[in-house]
Amino acid sequence: MIAATASADITPAPGLALQGHAGALPSESVLRPIEVRTLVLQHENVRAALVTVDVIGITRQTTSRIRHRIAADTDIPADHIMIACSHTHCAPATLPTLGLIPDEAFMASLESGVVAAVTQATRRLQPVTFALGCGSSHININRRPIQGPQPTADMTPNYGGIVDRRVRVLRIDTASGKPLAILFHYSCHPTSMPGTARIISPDYPGFARDQIETALGCHALFMPGCFGNVRPAFFDTNNRFISATPAQVEAAGREVGAAAAGAAGSLRTQPCDRLSVSTTTIDFEFTPITPADIETRVTQAGGNKLVNFWAANTRGLLAREGLPAHERSQMQRLTIGPLTLIAIPGEPVQEIGYRLEKELFDMNCQCRQPCELWAIGYTNDMVGYLVTERQKLEGGYEPNAFVYFDRPSGFAMEENTIAAAAASLMV
Q1: What's the first-to-final CA gap in the chain, in angstroms?
Q2: Which of 219, 230, 271, 375 has its CA at 20 to 30 Å from residue 158's CA atom?
Q3: Distances 48 to 2, 104, 125, 278, 282 between C-alpha atoms, Å
């Protein structure tokens, strides 16, 4: 196996609105640059690229453009490119949602930065070896409240809610034994600060990268977990979530980074020539919605502008052509040495990540070597929240957030759809 890394700074000048919360105002400063990281790998005639980007997410159309540009400039097939977004809420808009329209100049810079980084990495491939490790960090907490007779969309710390505190790492070394790259996986929404803070920032993943790169002298790539219902544990004495200060954001990132660097620092790597990629089309079916359902949501929202915007669009859609049957997207598997990544195109909750890990473990580990499977969200496309059927019955924010993603209704049985598609990728 041979591999190489590269990076690119995509930080714009302050002024663009930051995506992640409604009511975003123009940004005023930069806490830390937002960046692209890439890892390019090759074994025999198989080439692949893994890309991480400090933005809230990208559409499948953006992914397609980037893939085809890379394929034209290199010999990496378009469907062998995986693009994972950190999901920071303090980067410029990249999705036409939450009342924002992406800035064309920033999107052009983002796409060119990814293409340049991947192209640069292809020019310096070298032999590599691998090792897996794991640490832990407690900066995260479940954010779905225990629902009572009157379900609430408010988010509150749920100490008994499901959470994943592992900081898992893949260490990739050069032939000389020096670290080339660290992939680290953690499950926590990068919402330490909201976009309304008007500060450009990669949130805690950027500071975690800094910590790892300082400690080990190599590039670090953040792999987002299934943290649709998990966020940083910053809350007040009344059990209400609050925005972190810049110093707290940095401290949280350094805690995660220290756990990753500690886990990776003493690992002994070994050769592993597993490199493969597979993709599959996935159709998320929409649940039925009626004009009466729309009016109920508008009334409950009490004048929320984004809900009113969704309602107008959905009324028009039902009047013109009716509700679409489904939304088409893609899932992808990338196996790198002892690690398999399963990419999910939206905001999956932690329960879905655990389910994939449990159901696919035996299918993944047939190589007589240590191996691991990471489910990652926010990759290649952004279709909105992906939740369990139980969470739909409970109510709350995530099952009803489709209105903020400009989707006409929620999805039906998406957990099973994702699990079936993931299993097909392992064959």
Answers
A1: 22
A2: 375
A3: 11, 28, 12, 11, 21
Question: Which helix (H) or strand (E) element contains residue 223?
Answer: strand 219-224
Instruction: Specify the 3-state DSSP secondary structure of 202.
Output: coil
243 burial class (0-12, 13-18, 19+ CB within 10 angstroms)?
middle
Contact 375, 352 (CB under 8 A): yes
Distance CA 379, CA 85 (A): 6
